[in-house]
Structure formats: structure tokens, C-alpha cells
Amino acid sequence: MAITMKELAKMLNLSQSTVSRALNHKEGSHMRPEVGAMIREAARRAGFHPNMTATALRKGSTDLIAVSLPSPFIMRNAELSAALHHEIKQNGYIPFFVYHEDYEDLHAKTNMLLSMGLAGLITIEPNSLPVTPEFPVVGFCYYDDRFDVVQPDQKQAIRKILAHLQENGHRYVAVIGHAGDMRYNHFFNLLNEYGLECPQHCCIFFSGDRILFNTGSQNFFDQLMQQCQNKERPTAIITHNDQIAIRLMTRIQQQGFSIPGDFSIIGYDDTNMAQCVYPTLTSLSPGHPGEVAKTMLSLLLDRKKDPSRPLQRVSIQPDLIIRNSSGPAPQK
Prior knowledge:
This protein is of the alpha/beta class. It has helices at 5-12, 16-23, 33-46, 52-59, 75-90, 103-114, 154-167, 183-190, 220-227, 242-254, 289-305; strands at 64-70, 94-100, 120-123, 137-140, 148-152, 173-178, 203-206, 236-239, 264-268, 282-285, 313-316, 319-321. The protein has three domains: 5-50; 60-152 and 288-317, Response regulator (Rossmann fold), CATH 3.40.50; 154-286, Rossmann fold (3-Layer(aba) Sandwich). The chain has a six-stranded parallel sheet, sandwiched between helices. Strands 7-6-8-9-10-12 form a six-stranded mixed sheet, sandwiched between helices.
């Protein structure tokens, strides 16, 4: 039978309020850190589990901070989830993750979250919220003027990729991307500035996330080569994320081509896998997941303390991590 907080306090010869503060990581200046750690360790050994229902009824809300993201099968989302899990727990809250596959799924899960008495929400789609909830919300990537937001500087990210290709003598560039993603508006608007071209036969755009983690993405190179028959072939390929880039590199090398000798490949997200493939993948980092998670949670907790503070819009500066998959354009 599970031990109660009252029983735990009696066992430790401490007041119930002292035990409660320690278990909620709210020692403050009234408790030495080692005492709080001792109480939490004793609770773990005794098999204590907090009664979340009772806590929620007492406070009118839970200690849950929800995170709403697309599929964790996308490597960037998985790494960001792990970082957010760590940050949320470190701050004494309980992480609750919800993943969606499409907009219908997103809206259904959003309505569920609104009924849970959350302590806060971090979401990639803040505009999916039909009403402004009483708890704080932080948006990620996509802007909603009701909430604080953390956004990678997509325009600067594209500039760094195009500058790298220009410096290496490339002219014709292919792109494999997600239809509707704002970064491709910047891509096409900036091409001329860097002396690059991306003709229609060098473009592949897809919709939906499932193709990102099934075998369909392995066919992108074959599709690109078919589109380029009797036309100018690109010497560099920019992909929507590292997952596509890695599968693309596998197919290119299966077909007897060289990377970067025949094609330079550039990924996006700079996930851990970028360093584990051959050749290692040049990739655009939109911010280290740990730093992004820390920034988002800090915004949420600051909003929780001061709901009337001015809205915050934090821009994350990207960095192009140059590895072995990109290099000089092949000489003709």
C-alpha cells in the first residue's frame, strides 16, 4: 500500500508542510538543499507517489506542463522533447507530451488539453487554440499575437546556407521541402542575391509528416533525377531536415554517385545523427535543443509569475554546421 505524505512526514519527524515544499522543489531560503534532497530520496525509497487528483482539486490546477509537437519520429522533435522533459522536471513540474500527425488530430488533442487544468503549455501551433486559456502558453516557431513565442530566424538560416553554396561555386540548387513552410519563401526570394538558381525541375515539395519517417522519402533522389532528364542538373541539394538528407545520401551513393563530389547535401536541424553518417552531414542548426527548451520554459514561468508583462518574441540565431557532405561544385 502506498505511503501518504502525512505518514512520510511522521516517519522523518518533520512537518507535512516541510515535506511538501521539498517534494515540490520549493525549498527557497528556508531549507538547506541537502535537506530537500534527503526528503526526496526518503520519499523515493518509501515508494511515495503524490496524489495528483487531490493536489489539482486543492489548487484548482495541476502541476502539468503540456508540450504539443508533431510526431516524435522526426528526430528534431524527439531531441527537443527530451530537452523539455529535463527542463520541466528540473523546475518541479510534471511534463505531459502530446503529439499530432495532422491538423484534425491536433485540434482534437488541443481541446483535450484545454480541459486538463494545466500549469502551462508549450506548442508549435499556438494558433490552434480556439480561446485564450487561463494558463500561460509559449509558442514555438509559429507566431500568435496572444502568446509569447520562440522562433528560429528562418531568413538568416537560409542566408547562411546560400552563402555557403555561393562560396563553393555552386549555381544550380535543388530543394526538397515541406509545402507551406515559411522558410521556402525566404529561399526563393534570396536566390538571386547569391547568384543561385533553382528551376522548377529542381524542386520537390511534399505535404504531411508521415513521408518524413517512411520509405517514401527514399524515392526523392529518383524523382529528382527523373525531373532533371535532359535538363541542367543541380550540384547541391537542400533538404527539409536531416532525416530526409540521410536517406537521400544513402540512395545517392547506392546509385554510384559521390558526396560531395557529384552532389553537396545540406540538412536542417543538426540532429545527433548528422555526425553519425558517412559522410558526416552539413546541417543548419536552428538552436541547440537544450538551450531552446530552457528559453521556452523560462518564458512560460516568467509569464506565470507576471501575467501582465509585455509579450515576448525571442529570435534564435541559427548556425550552419559545415561537415563533409558539402564542398566545391564539380568541375564540368
